[in-house]
Amino acid sequence: MQVIKLNATDSTNAxxxxxxxxxxxxxxxxxxxxxxxxxxxxxxxRWEAEExxxxxxxxxxxxEAFPALQHFTLNAAISLSxxxxxxxxxxxxxxxxxxxxxxxxxxxxxxxxxxNVLQGNFISQSxxxxxxxxxxxxxxxxxxxxxxxxxxxxHFNTDQVLSVVLNQLESDLSGIATDxxxxxxxxxxxxxxxxxxxxxxxxxxxxxxxxxxxxxxxGGLLQIELPDGSLESFGNKEVQFPKPKR
Length: 246
Known about the structure:
The protein is an alpha+beta fold. Helices cover about 25% and strands about 35% of the residues. The protein has helices at about 10-20, 70-85, 150, 160-175, 180-190; strands at about 1-10, 30-35, 55-65, 95, 100-105, 105-120, 120-130, 200-205, 210-215, 220-225, 230-235, 240. The model has no long low-confidence stretch (mean pLDDT about 90).
């Protein structure tokens, strides 16, 4: 594992992409930055993090003959791996919010951005960006955000947290090509936020509807059961979750 530490960059995902254009990087190259000037999350949103208090890093994972149709299996494996690592730090009420967030209770603790490179029908490599709130305690513009320190009252060594997370990711992703897709999806679904809980949602046109999350399809679509008993599937930008109650 090669870990490159930077004081600042625009985004660690973008930094790895530039490096890949210049040279052949070894599997599991990691770029960590104390500060990102243009960090990104899901839906193109900015990832805000107080300098030096959190972890913002990306890693390059090379894959062999990994079917592009199973891309969500990779997302599930990454989310589960970080979930497992955070359990070592006694973080309470952990859950996985579809598609790529990790929550404690109703608050966001970690965001993941996965960008895949395709060769034909296969994923040849994946750039995995991770933002984990560690020691930041004030989130003035992000009322639903939280951190490890805010949850536990403990100040964490960020290098130690990074080491635990990276070791777990390396262990779990090393055999990802041979893992059974259904097993990973079952494990992911078992920790899914709001699973089997009545809730209100919004469609992409803003119209509200009630339902219960039942799982995720093999293609990564969120499956919500409607009041009439029918099951409807939603892509990443096709549904919004309810605002959590604080």
